[in-house]
Amino acid sequence: MNDPHSLISSPATNASCSHNNKCLIEVSGEGTVSAAPDKTIIVLGATTENISLAAAQKENAAIITNVVNAMMKLGIPKENIQTITYNIDTQYNYEDGKQTFRGYKVTHLLQISIPSVNQTGLILDTAVQNGANSVTSIQFMVGQPDAYYNQALTLAIRNGQQKAMTIAKSFGVTLDRTPNQVQEVARGHEPSPYPISLMAKSEATPIQPGELKISAAVRIVYSFS
Hints:
This protein is of the alpha+beta class. It has two domains: 4-36 and 144-223, Protein of unknown function (DUF541), domain 1 (Translation Initiation Factor IF3), CATH 3.30.110.170; 39-141, Protein of unknown function (DUF541), domain 2 (Alpha-Beta Plaits, 2-Layer Sandwich). The protein has three helices and eight strands; from the N terminus they run E-E-E-H-E-E-H-E-H-E-E. It has helices at 53-73, 120-129, 145-170; strands at 13-17, 23-35, 39-50, 81-95, 98-114, 134-141, 181-185, 212-223. The protein has a four-stranded antiparallel sheet. Helix 1 packs antiparallel against helix 2. Pfam families: SIMPL.
């Protein structure tokens, strides 16, 4: 039998014995599950420019009002439409080292929560048809992410257990059935939004939500003899 006092050590696994003969195996476990998204969050809105601030604001407000009304006609509740950005910027031209006032830019972005991914393309097209000229991100999500994360966590624990058993078997030692420690390794399980280019099309914009990958990771410490 190999000497358990000199087993292995790596970033993913570690096995050692302390001076008081307490022998430990530390492993990492990972698990991933796939989930079909069932909701979408879109950030879109309007940017307008004019030498008159009042005119830029008026044009912008008209566009946003049209977009909001159009969303509500599609069945999106008003509480699912929220302003997340409203900016007024002064615009300048620079020529020959001189700064010349050009006008104002007004940006108003809405966050729209859509209860069905199937409406995503329709929402985008309808917003553009009603004057939206900025779409900054689309985020596909699942309504119950914790349920999928718990599945991934179970797989991560099983993965760590299998690693520990393999190590113990390879060195001819006996692994304790109950781990000394199980630590969840924090990691985000919500997908990040991705940017989208805004292009006017004569046909419905095809949006493919695909599947989301939800992952979990753990660190497990076992005793062995």
